[in-house]
Amino acid sequence: MSDAVPRTGVPPRKHTALPKARTLIEALPWLTRHHGKTVVIKFGGNAMVDEELKRAFAQDVVFLRHAGLHPVVVHGGGPQISAQLDRLGLESEFRAGLRVTTPEAMDVVRMVLAGQVQRELVGLLNEHGPLAVGMTGEDAQLMTATKHYAAIDGERVDIGRVGEITEIDTGAVQALLDDGRIPVISSIARSGDDGDGTGVFNVNADTAAAALAAALGAETLMVLTDVEGLYEDWPHSDEVISRLTATELEKLLPELASGMVPKMRGCLHAVRNGVHTARVIDGRVQHAILLEIFTDEGIGTMVVPDADTIEGTR
C-alpha cells in the first residue's frame, strides 16, 4: 500500500516522449477543421520515383484516412512513360510543355499509368489495410475530354491524343469515399468526340486533379512538386510565397516557369470553383502532406479564393 502513496515535493519525471504529445496537440485544431472533408492530392515529381518518398506518401494518405479525412489521389507518370517509350524505340516529344501523344504513345501511356504506376501505389496504400481502389478517368465515365490543341507562336498545333477535360462525373469516386475507400485515379479521360466511345485522351495530371477537386467540392487540393513552392522572384530569390489570393496568382501566371504553369493554373481553377484552399508543396520532403495540413507553419504555397477572410487557413 505504501507504494501507492504519492511522494510530495518531488518533481514529476521527465518523459522523453513529451515532445510527441506537443506535436499531436498542435495538430488538434487542424484535425478538427479538416475532419470529414475531402482532400484531392496530385501525386508526382520525385515522390513518384524515390522508394522512401513513395512509402512516406502512402503512409501520409492512410493517416489522413484514419484521421477522418477523405483523401483522393490523382497521378500521372511522366518519367515512367518516357522510360517505356525509350524501351520501345518510340520518340518522346514535348511541345508547349505537353507530351505529343500519338496513338502508339497513347497505348503506352494507358499501359504505364493504369498497369504500372497505379498498381504500385495501390499496393503501397493497401499494405496498411484494404483501403485503396484504382481506376482511370475512363471508368464509370469519370472524366470526359475533347482534343486539346497547343498554342505555339500564336498558332494552333495538333499534339495528338492530348485531352482537355469537359465533364466530370463524380458518382463512382463518391461511392468509394462513402465506403471508406481511397480512390487512386490515373489521368486518362474518355473521349466525348468518338461515336463508338472507345477513344481516350492523355490528360495533364495537375489539370485533372484540379477539375476533380472542384467537382467533388473538396476542402483542399494538394499538388506535390519538386520545388519548395512558388518563389517570389525566381531565380533572383529563393523566398517562397506562403499564401496568396486567386487574383494575386493570376497576375503572376505570365511570369512563371513553364513547369509551374499547369500546377498553378490548376490551383487557380480549383479555388475559383469552390475548393477552399489549393496548396503546392515539396514532394521531396518526407511526410510533406502531414506537415502542410497539420502544423501551424505549413511548408508550401497556399492559394485561397479572393473572398477568403478566414483566419488560420494554414
What would you say this structure looks like, in words?
The structure is a single chain. The strands form 2 sheets. Strands 1, 2, 5, 6, 7, 8, 9, 10, 11, 12 and 13 form an 11-stranded mixed beta sheet that branches. The longest helix is centred in the middle third of the chain and has 23 residues, at 103-125. It contains 9 helices and 13 strands. The protein has 314 residues and is of the alpha/beta class. The termini are far apart. The protein is globular, with a radius of gyration of 22 Å. The chain is 35% helix and 25% strand.
Give a brief description.
The chain has 314 residues and is an alpha/beta fold. It has helices at 18-34, 51-66, 78-87, 103-125, 171-178, 205-216, 246-252, 261-271, 288-294, and strands at 38-43, 70-75, 94-95, 98-99, 132-137, 143-152, 155-168, 182-191, 200-202, 220-225, 243-245, 277-282, 301-304. The radius of gyration is 22 Å and the shape is globular.
For the largest beta-sheet, the strand count, sense and barrel status come to:
11 strands, mixed
Helix content estimate: 25-40%
Query: Could you tell me the number of beta strands?
Result: 13
Mean pLDDT across residues: 87
Q: What coarse outline follows from CA principal-axis ratios? A: globular
Structural class: alpha/beta
What is the number of helices?
Answer: 9
Q: Which stretches of 5+ consecutive residues score pLDDT under 50? A: none
In terms of DSSP E residues, the strand content is 15-25%
- The secondary-structure element order is HEHEHEEHEEEHEEHEEHHEHE
Distance between the termini: 51 Å
Radius of gyration from the alpha-carbon trace, in angstroms: 22 Å
